[in-house]
Structure formats: C-alpha cells, structure tokens
Specification:
Layout lengths: L8 H14 L13 H11 L9 H17 L5 H14 L4 H13 L9 H6 L1
Helix pairs in contact: 1-2, 2-4, 3-5, 4-5
Length: 124
C-alpha cells in the first residue's frame, strides 16, 4: 500500500477502499453518496481486515493512514468515528501496534475538538 504523501482526501479514501477490497473486505469501490464521513466510517468498519495481513509495520502504516484521515475530517460526528476506530483497535490482538496507533490518535486530535479523549485514555 502506498504512503499518502501527495494524495488528496478522495485519493486516500480510494486507496484504502482498494486495499481493503484486495484483502477480501466487503466495501464498495465507489465513494459513498452520503459524503466523506460515511466513506471514512465504511473504512473504519472494515479496517480489521488488515489485522492479520502483512508485518506489524505494514499494519501500523495502514492504521496510521486512517488516523490521519480521522483527525483531518471536519465532522460533527467525529466522536463516533474515533470511538468506533478505537474500539476496533482495543479489541484487536495487535499489542504494541494498537497502542502506538491509539497514542498517535490521542496526540493528533485537536484539544478543541468535541471528541472525548477520556475514552481513548481508558483504552490504554
């Protein structure tokens, strides 16, 4: 999977959709007609498909890509996206990989964000 250095939001979403489909995840190739937030929710819902594929570094890279999208998505429902993603990681048997990704998420969420970071802290 490519690193998202020069990709805009839509291209990152398309890359993630393609990647998760290649792992057998049930996700459409097409953008959601409901918008960016739904696109990201669909990706978060299937992110577990990568938990058993690739090295820890590859898994972490994919999950960090999702984190970068989570923290840059303007949304009134960002809490739901963050909570869903955090739950998936907390339940996964990824050890330090999950911890590093959750820590990155915790550090990257804007202090002024409506997201309740207490939830992520409890997961630690």
């Amino acid at each position: 999977m490519n690193v998202f250095i020069d990709l805009d939001y839509d291209e990152q979403i398309a890359e993630l959709r393609q990647y998760f489909r290649s792992l057998g995840a049930d996700i459409s190739e097409d953008k959601s007609p409901l918008g960016l937030e739904d696109d990201l929710l669909q990706i978060v819902n299937v992110c577990g498909a990568c938990f058993n594929h690739g090295t820890e570094l590859e898994i972490e890279s994919v999950l960090n890509g999702i984190v970068s999208l989570l923290v840059t998505t303007p949304s009134d429902n960002n809490n739901r996206l963050i909570f869903t993603f955090s739950d998936k990681l907390a339940k996964a048997k990824l050890g330090n990989t999950a911890l590093k990704v959750l820590w990155l998420l915790f550090q990257r969420v804007d202090e002024k964000s409506p997201s309740d970071m207490t939830y992520i802290i409890i997961l630690f």
